[in-house]
Design brief:
about 500 residues, alpha/beta, two-stranded antiparallel sheet, about 45% helix
Length: about 500
């Protein structure tokens, strides 16, 4: 170690200063790197703590998504009050008929007065003490024996046989009704085929799972033209929703796949693909012109480049992120409350004209408050924290979409602000998420599909049954009527058209 204070050589001192400057710069860089590393560690730690808190609430807290502080309670079916979710067939559920009513007459056996024990009593014709009870008849399987009459001609001596009923498979022994029961149990009640096999065996009907799938496959062939008719009907409307959810193919390599859906109030169309590429949605929406609502998944970014489409974002997704962030950052409740005010305004609308007025006079003010809130808290939270992610998601949704640093469409506003300019734009993508509920519930019970053919069969029935549910058309009645029409070579119609027929009958 040199004592520079005693050094008299100017050249040496200059070299020492240069060396020390380099050393200082190096140490400063190392210090900055350590600070950044420490900051990243804190950010990761904060992110993990937030995620842990969210998971604890999700799996162990019985409270709903709204949380304790939600000042605007929402009932279970409040989504139906939003004008964009109205059933085009009307608000009341369609029914071909009510429950069957069977009369049971209880006779007075001993014919003695219950008060004075006299036997001098007379029957009051047509008078009964009446009461009702709901009863269930146990599900059971029967063998239906068909006897077709034979007539012999006295002139030509040839035999004419009476026609039998229509069958699912010519010469087969399983009825259309059995096939419909299997399909509804799997794709509406989420009961796997092997579990149905065990249920059948307990009722003395012994069929293997492969045969049960074969029955559903035959019914699917009768109805395979319906999904495309439903898709055409969906795309003929002003607004549609798109979404996707994972569902695997179970073979030795366990291949990943996705159930894609296009839906609106007229129906739900499903398609299974082994990719999550946005090209699938682009193909499904081919020829559509209007409003498309989706979440912020990057696969839907192609919608911003299509002139004939207005791409709208989802306020429910944004709200959900702030609900989760509220667990660790109470300030998020302010944004939840502001978003709830937007929904409260929507529920007041009596028709689309009224909704337009409400959005111009009230919703615009709330959105301005939201943007002021974002400016107030911008940059004040770690980006990887739950509140930081929620703020970033909302900020991105309120800005016009950019590609390579340039705004794609100069007339475009942020996806979350599109609803202010067009009364037909829904506030969220919840309708699409509800359309994915049946496949997701099915996934919890049977995990996935065994083959691609099985997946395609499932998509046919998810489309048909999901559309019936959406329109509140009885799935059993529709499936049976269309199967009979298919066997007879008659024209097949969509659940919406079938619902119209039911209304006309009434």
């Amino acid at each position: 170690m040199f004592k520079l204070s005693k050094e008299k050589s100017v050249g040496f001192l200059k070299e020492a200063i240069i060396f020390l400057e380099e050393k200082v710069v190096k140490l400063e860089n190392e210090n900055a790197a350590l600070k950044e590393l420490c900051s990243d560690e804190n950010a990761v730690k904060k992110q993990l703590m937030d995620e842990l808190a969210i998971l604890k609430k999700r799996y162990f807290d019985s409270l709903s998504e709204r949380g304790k502080k939600d000042k605007i309670p929402r009932k279970k079916r409040d989504f139906l009050k939003l004008i964009h979710n109205k059933n085009p067939l009307g608000e009341l559920q369609l029914q071909t008929e009510g429950l069957d009513e069977i009369e049971t007459i209880h006779k007075l056996i001993d014919k003695i007065c219950s008060f004075c024990s006299s036997n001098n009593i007379k029957k009051m014709n047509g008078c009964y003490e009446e009461s009702r009870e709901i009863e269930i008849i146990e599900k059971k399987f029967i063998i239906k024996k068909h006897l077709r009459e034979k007539w012999i001609c006295q002139d030509c001596n040839k035999i004419t046989t009476a026609k039998g009923g229509l069958k699912l498979i010519p010469g087969g022994k399983y009825s259309i009704e059995l096939a419909i029961s299997i399909v509804i149990d799997k794709f509406l009640n989420h009961i796997p085929l092997d579990r149905q096999r065990k249920m059948m065996a307990r009722n003395r009907l012994y069929i293997d799972t492969k045969t049960i799938f074969g029955i559903t496959d035959h019914l699917e062939r009768l109805l395979e033209s319906i999904p495309k008719l439903i898709l055409k009907e969906i795309l003929s409307q002003k607004t549609t929703y798109v979404d996707e959810s994972p569902m695997n193919i179970f073979h030795p390599e366990r291949q990943k796949g996705y159930i894609w859906s296009v839906s609106n109030n007229y129906g739900q169309y499903y398609q299974y693909e082994l990719t999550r590429s946005g090209d699938v949605a682009k193909e499904m929406l081919k020829g559509f012109s209007g409003i498309v609502v989706s979440d912020a998944y990057g696969g839907y970014n192609f919608l911003y480049f299509m002139k004939e489409i207005i791409h709208s974002g989802c306020w429910a997704h944004s709200r959900r992120k702030f609900v989760e962030a509220e667990i660790t950052s109470p300030i998020a409740q302010e944004m939840v409350d502001l978003t709830d005010k937007l929904y409260a305004i929507e529920r007041k609308a009596q028709d689309f004209k009224h909704l337009q007025i409400l959005r111009e006079s009230e919703s615009t003010i709330i959105v301005n408050e939201i943007e002021l809130w974002l400016k107030k808290y911008h940059g004040k939270y770690l980006k990887k924290s739950a509140i930081g992610k929620a703020i970033k998601y909302l900020e991105r949704g309120l800005r016009p979409f950019e590609s390579k640093g340039k705004i794609v469409n100069k007339n475009q506003v942020g996806a979350l602000k599109e609803f202010l300019n067009n009364e037909y734009v829904p506030l969220d993508n919840n309708a699409a998420e509800r359309s994915q509920r049946d496949p997701v519930m099915g996934r919890k019970n049977y995990n996935g599909f065994r083959t691609l053919d099985g997946a395609d069969t499932a998509m046919t029935f998810y489309t048909i049954i999901g559309t019936c549910k959406r329109l509140e058309v009885p799935p059993w009645a529709y499936l049976k009527e269309m199967a009979m029409r298919s066997l007879q070579g008659k024209i097949i119609i969509t659940p919406f058209q079938f619902g119209r027929e039911l209304q006309d009958v009434k």
